[in-house]
Amino acid sequence: MTLSTPIRPVSEALVPATTLERGRAEDARQQRTLDGAPLAELRDRAERQLNAVRAVVLALLAIAAFAYAPSLTPALRVVNVSILVPALAWTLAQYLQWYDRPQLPGWLTLANPVVDITAVTASMAGYGLTQSATLALRSPMFLAYFVILAARPVTSSTRRAAAAAALTVAEYSALVAFLVVQRGVSFKASPLSAAAGTGIAPLDEGAKLLLLAVAGAVATYATAWHERLVVAYSRAARERERLETRLTQAQLESLKNQLQPHFLFNALNAITALIPTDARAAQRTVHGLSELLRLSLNSSADDEVRLDRELELLGHYLAIQRLRFQERLTVHLEVDPEVRRAFIPNLLLQPLVENAIRHGIGPRAAGGSIAIRAGRHDNVLRLRVADDGVGARLSAEQRLAREGVGLGNTRARLQHLYGDRHRLALTTAPGAGFAVEIDVPYRI
Fold first, then answer.
1. Strands (E) located in 263-355
2. Distance between CA 424 and CA 155 in Å, rounded?
3. What is the Cα–Cα distance from 136 to 172, expressed in whole angstroms?
4. What are residue 438's DSSP bridge partners?
5. What phi, psi does 300 have (nearest 5°)?
6. β-pairing verdict for 423-429 and 380-387
7. What is the pLDDT of residues 279-289, one digit of tens each?
């Protein structure tokens, strides 16, 4: 009959700074790093995805330009090639140069929108120079500016989003001024007259610039809001993790505080039983108890100790119990020398041995033996404490109810220290004694 819990991973703690000022500076640096880490990861992923979209769009535009090439003038074909080929080459070069790295260069989040905005402006300028300036300014290509700005919140910082917005307004303003000066585009007071003729209306162009400015402002605000949201969520998650860690530590301390008086109470009971019958043995037991308490107190603040230290403490405890039980108690110790430096929870073995003596050996008039084994299985340290005592016929629920302070605390401490990366199996049957087997991560 076996009751067990499964095995899964555990984490390490961070080392704090050694001085107050350095500690504060390091905490501030780590805070900035941790705040920026989720954003950097999200932006890197978004930049990769956006570059894939850019590659698809440019490929489709290249196919369309090739399909319509026979109906275009040589000048327009030159414009298409001079814009599409460098833009597509830049997009594909990013895959060859940086996409095998864990993180893209940070400056790409600024370079890519600059390239995109400039490509749109250059295309409109090319069409204006080779065909009609009025047609170029009325071209749907103008809407590409808004698509570029819409991607800023997920790929750029607030400052870079603002820079892209300002660049868009500046380039389109420069484009309008260039076409007016170089191509002699006439101004029409009425937008209706401009739509019917070859001129442009200042009101139309002013509205376009206003829309670009508003779209840029919205993109910048959305970027800032996105940053604040991610940072706030990251901080809340870290605060929740910190509180959970403190709660776990408090629970561990509570468990240890319960275990140590319980252990001392049982040791004193053993000494009390010896005083009427063997005063010298009682004196030796008191000396052994003092050594036991010294070792226990020296490591009381540690959640984990090395196995050899735990075995030393267990040796003093067994010496006390041997004086009490005499020939009725036999202990077999089998420990692989390789695992003696491995870490295990503090005061792990003593409660298990105490349970074996109390529930397995104690009720038997003839006494019995306890076998303690420790060995390594891959990345797992396996500990086993078994007795050949009376055993019991208990269901899993009954055994959990009768675990008491020692085994109950052991189970709880293993859960707090290792989460699901442990296994505790309790086996018993009438006349077959009790056996407790524990697996914990092997660490030295």
1. 304-306, 329-335, 343-345
2. 48
3. 12
4. 383, 424
5. -65, -25
6. unpaired
7. 777 787 787 77
Mean pLDDT of the chain: 78
Residue ranges per structural domain of the chain: 22-240, 275-441
Residue 426 in 3-state DSSP? strand
In angstroms, the CA 234 to CA 371 distance is 50
Size of the chain, expressed as the number of residues it contains: 444
> How far, in Å, are 59, 128, 158 from residue 194 at the CA level?
34, 16, 38
Q: How many separate helices (H) and strands (E) can be counted in the chain? A: 14, 8
Q: Whole-angstrom Cα distance, residue 407 to residue 413?
A: 10
- Inter-residue contact 266 to 289 (CB < 8 Å): no
**Residue 141 near residue 123, CB atoms below 8 Å:** yes
SS3 content of the chain, % helix, strand, coil (to 5): 70, 10, 20
Cβ neighbours, 10 Å, residue 371 = 17
Beta-bridge partners for 371: 332, 386
The rounded distance, in Å, linking the Cα atoms of 293 and 317 is 10
CA distance 193 to 421: 77
DSSP code for 363: T
Instruction: Give the Cα separation of 417 and 415 in Å (integer).
Output: 6
Q: Is the pLDDT of residue 262 over 60?
A: no
Task: Report pLDDT digits (tens) over 135-187.
Answer: 788 888 889 999 999 988 888 889 999 999 999 999 999 998 888 877 666 66
pTM of the prediction?
Answer: 0.50
CA distance 346 to 210: 70
Here the tokens at position 165 are 């917005």
CB crowding 279-291: b at 16 or more within 10 Å, else e: eebbebbeebbee
Which of the following CATH numbers is that of domain 275-441: 3.40.800.10, 3.10.105.10, 3.20.20.10, 3.30.565.10? 3.30.565.10
Coil, helix or strand at residue 387: strand
